[in-house]
Design brief:
heterodimer; A: two-stranded antiparallel ribbon; about 25% helix; B: Ribosomal protein S3 C-terminal domain; 5-stranded mixed β-sheet
Chain lengths: ~180, ~170
C-alpha cells in the first residue's frame, strides 16, 4: 500500500517532464527549428500562410473549425511537417500570431492536433507579409488576388507602406 | 481509611504485574486506558514501516528511471553540439539549416577527418549521415547494432531545396 502511495506521489509517467527526456526535447526543438528555417528559406512557409480561401474565410480544405486537424496543411510546408513529425509519432500544433488594429496580439490556429503535454517544446519564426504578395491555391499556384485587396485574417496595419504585416508562426511539438 | 487510596492501589497492582502476574493486573486497569495503550504501539510500528517504504521508493525510483549513467551524458552533449555545429555553421550557407552543397561535398569527402572538423576527442566514435529522398551521404564507421549505447542527434535541414535529415551518432 505504501509503495503504491509513494509511486502516486512521485507520479512518474512517460509524459512527465524530467531530465530523462531533456535530450529528446532538445532534438525535437532543433528539428522544429530546422523545419521552420528551411520552409522560410524556400518560401513554402509563406505560401502555406497565403493558401487562404476568401469565401470560406479559412485556410483551404481546413476543418469546419478553421484549422487542419489531421496533420499538416496540404502543401509543401505541411508535407515537411508530416514527414518530420507525424511519421515519427510526434504531434504538433501550428499557431499564427498577429496584431489586431487595436494592437492586441491575436492567435489563429493553423494546425491543431490536440493539447500539448507538459514536455512540449515551442519554436517561433517570424514572417513578413507584403502588400503585393499573392494568395495561393492549395496546389501552390498563385492567384491574381494580392494581400492589399484580399479578405485576409491579418489586418493591414499601415496602408501607406508596402509592408502588410508581420506574423509569428509558432510550432508546438510534443511526443504523443 | 477503610478503603485504600486509588493511586496507592494501582501502584501495588502494577508492581505485582511486573513480577509476572500480568493477567490479574490487566483486569484491574480500566478498559479505556488499556485500549489507548495498545493503539499507540501499533500506530508507531505501522507508520514506521510506511515511512521507511516511502523513503526507499523515493530514493530509488529516480535512479532506476535515469537513463544517463556515467559517460553517456557527455555523449548526448557531444552529439547535440556536433549536430548544431554542422546544421547551423559548418555546412550551412548564410542562413542556418540551409546547407551549402559545396560544404556538404567537402565534409563527406573520405579524406576529411571528422574528429578534427567537429573538435571531438579521440575516445568517442562518430557517424554523420545526411539523407533525403534522392541522396545519402555518410562519414565515419558504422554504429554498433547495440542501440542502447549510441546517442543520436537529429536535425532537419535543406540541401538544394530538398528537405533532408542530418543525423549524428556518437558512441
Amino acid at each position: 500500500m505504501s509503495v503504491v502511495f509513494a509511486l502516486q506521489v512521485t507520479a512518474v509517467t512517460p509524459l512527465t517532464a524530467s531530465t530523462a527526456s531533456q535530450h529528446i526535447e532538445n532534438q525535437e526543438r532543433a528539428a522544429a527549428r530546422g523545419v521552420l528555417a528551411t520552409a522560410d528559406a524556400n518560401d513554402t512557409l509563406k505560401a502555406a500562410l497565403l493558401t487562404w480561401n476568401e469565401s470560406a474565410r479559412s485556410f483551404y480544405n481546413a476543418s469546419a473549425r478553421g484549422y487542419y486537424a489531421t496533420g499538416g496543411p496540404p502543401n509543401a510546408f505541411g508535407a515537411a511537417l508530416n514527414e518530420t513529425f507525424a511519421n515519427r509519432g510526434i504531434a504538433f500544433n501550428v499557431n499564427v500570431y498577429y496584431l489586431s488594429p487595436s494592437g492586441q496580439r491575436k492567435r489563429r490556429e493553423m494546425v491543431h492536433l490536440g493539447e500539448p503535454s507538459d514536455n512540449a517544446v515551442t519554436v517561433v519564426q517570424t514572417v513578413t507579409l507584403y502588400d503585393d504578395d499573392h494568395l495561393h491555391f492549395t496546389n501552390g499556384t498563385a492567384m491574381d488576388t494580392t494581400l492589399s485587396n484580399a479578405a485576409y485574417f491579418v489586418p493591414d496595419l499601415d496602408a501607406a507602406s508596402n509592408v502588410y504585416g508581420v506574423v509569428e508562426v509558432e510550432v508546438v511539438v510534443w511526443r504523443m | 481509611m477503610s478503603r485504600p487510596h486509588p493511586t496507592r492501589r494501582r501502584t501495588r497492582q502494577s508492581s505485582r504485574g511486573r513480577h509476572g502476574h500480568a493477567p490479574r493486573a490487566g483486569r484491574l486497569i480500566p478498559r479505556r486506558e488499556r485500549a489507548r495503550g495498545q493503539t499507540t504501539l501499533d500506530f508507531l510500528i505501522g507508520i514506521s514501516v510506511f515511512l521507511v517504504t516511502v523513503g526507499v521508493v523515493l530514493t530509488f525510483v529516480p535512479g532506476i528511471l535515469n537513463p544517463f549513467v556515467g559517460g553517456r551524458t557527455v555523449n548526448a552533449l557531444t552529439a547535440d553540439r556536433a549536430a548544431t555545429t554542422l546544421a547551423t555553421g559548418d555546412l550551412a550557407g548564410p542562413e542556418p539549416y540551409v546547407l551549402n552543397r559545396s560544404g556538404v561535398n567537402s565534409f563527406f569527402d573520405p579524406a576529411t577527418d571528422v574528429h578534427d572538423r567537429l573538435g571531438l576527442s579521440g575516445t568517442v566514435q562518430v557517424n554523420v549521415t545526411l539523407t533525403n529522398a534522392n541522396q545519402r551521404w555518410t562519414s565515419g564507421p558504422t554504429p554498433p547494432t547495440d542501440a542502447g549505447s549510441v546517442i543520436s542527434a537529429w536535425r532537419v535541414v535543406s540541401v538544394d531545396g530538398h528537405r533532408s535529415d542530418l543525423r549524428v551518432r556518437v558512441w
